[in-house]
Write a structure and sequence with these properties.
The radius of gyration is 19 Å and the shape is globular. The strands form 4 sheets. Strands 3-2-1-4-5-6-11 form a 7-stranded parallel sheet, sandwiched between helices. Strands 12-9-14 form a 3-stranded mixed sheet. By secondary structure, the chain is an alpha/beta fold. Strand 5, helix 5 and strand 6 form a beta-alpha-beta unit. It has a domain of 193 residues: NAD(P)-binding Rossmann-like Domain (Rossmann fold, 3-Layer(aba) Sandwich). Bound molecules: uridine-5'-diphosphate. The site of uridine-5'-diphosphate has 14 residues, from helix 6 and strand 8.
Length: 328
């Protein structure tokens, strides 16, 4: 298939693009490079440098025709979304609306969308299935939920076949591709930076949660397991339907358990300091992944140790991320 990958210069988009190329598809990456990295665009993918807010140029670019689109391009920093909601609604919601317009006018009939468990906010029942009430507690989650709603309506009105994947905590690396955000807010890369001496100590945000060791529990999923779900989702898109799946490993690990896993994998001392809770962080988020297992035949294959090990390899290869990397 000839596939459009928006945000294909970002962490997850680039790794899915790489997977699609390996599977023999033709891949066109569309990315503004505002937050993506030219060096992350896999060899063999064509890059169109374009912002989704440039509606006319976007329509022209998509007009060449595609068998399907995978939509990753978005801003994804929770704290920033709270401080600057307008940025998130414009970039994530208006950008996605422009993309839907462009896909419709080009007759593209399949879409896979990168949604998030942040649409559920602070759920009362764990593990969380797809019927969990959607009550986002930040503008990032709200912007992704708005796009899920737009996609449902697009499917109903115009026959698009779409799949939204609601990611839990994506981690790890794949080949020479990995996670490089500025600022880096995610736990595993920050613990690795502390292990490497690139930052003083990792902060443990909150030690008084109602969890076994007092630190927050999250469901970490290896980015390669996540990428495979996109391939299945593309096949599973059905005309006029919007299928929504939670995508997590189903296992929860605390912040302390993650730090311990990094100590074990790296053999290094990891300085850690206890700090207050980060505003808006729920105590536990763990996926019920029965729906995607049953309907798409997906199952996770990688452990927390695999995720930390692969992220560690990437951190050693690129201690300063993609900066200064040779562009393709
Ligand atoms: N966390 C932490 N120190 C850090 C980064 C994150 O203690 O430097 C905690 C955070 O409070 C949350 C968990 O680790 O409970 C995962 O955070 P991350 O930002 O990786 O993902 P989120 O769950 O917020 O999407």
């Amino acid at each position: 298939m000839k596939l459009l990958v928006t945000g294909g210069a970002g962490y997850i988009g680039s790794i899915v693009a790489q997977q699609l190329l390996t599977d023999g598809h033709e891949v066109v990456v569309l990315d503004s490079l505002a937050r993506g990295h030219r060096a992350a665009v896999p060899d063999g993918a064509r890059l169109i440098e374009l912002d989704l807010l440039e509606a006319d140029a976007l329509r022209d670019a998509v007009a060449e025709g595609f068998d399907g689109a995978l939509h990753f391009a978005a801003y994804a920093l929770v704290a920033e979304s709270v401080a600057r909601p307008e940025l998130y609604y414009r970039n994530n919601v208006v950008g996605s609306l422009n993309l839907l317009d462009a896909l419709r006018s080009a007759g593209v009939q399949r879409l896979v969308f990168s949604s998030t468990c942040a649409v559920y906010g602070e759920p009362e029942v764990i593990p969380m299935d797809e019927l969990t009430p959607t009550r986002p507690v930040n503008s990032y989650g709200a912007s992704k939920l708005a796009v899920d709603g737009m996609i449902s309506d697009e499917c109903r009105a115009h026959g698009l076949g779409a799949v939204s994947l609601r990611y839990f905590n994506v981690a790890g690396a794949s080949g020479c591709l990995g996670e490089d955000h500025e600022p880096e807010t995610h736990l595993i890369p920050n613990v690795l930076r502390a292990a490497q001496g690139l930052q003083d100590a990792v902060k443990i945000f909150g030690t008084d949660y109602p969890t076994p060791d007092g630190t927050a529990v999250r469901d970490y999923i290896h980015v390669e397991d996540l990428a495979r779900a996109h391939v299945l989702a593309l096949d599973g898109a059905r005309p006029s339907e919007h299928r929504i799946f939670n995508l997590g490993s189903g296992d929860g690990y605390s912040v302390r358990e993650v730090i311990e896993a990094v100590r074990t994998v790296t053999g290094l001392d990891v300085p850690a300091v206890e700090a207050g809770r980060r505003p808006g962080d729920p105590p536990r988020l763990v996926a019920a992944n029965g729906k995607i297992r049953a309907e798409l035949g997906w199952a996770p294959t990688k452990s927390l140790t695999d995720m930390v090990g692969d992220a560690w390899r990437f951190a050693q290869q690129r201690p300063h991320g993609y900066a200064g990397a040779h562009a393709h």
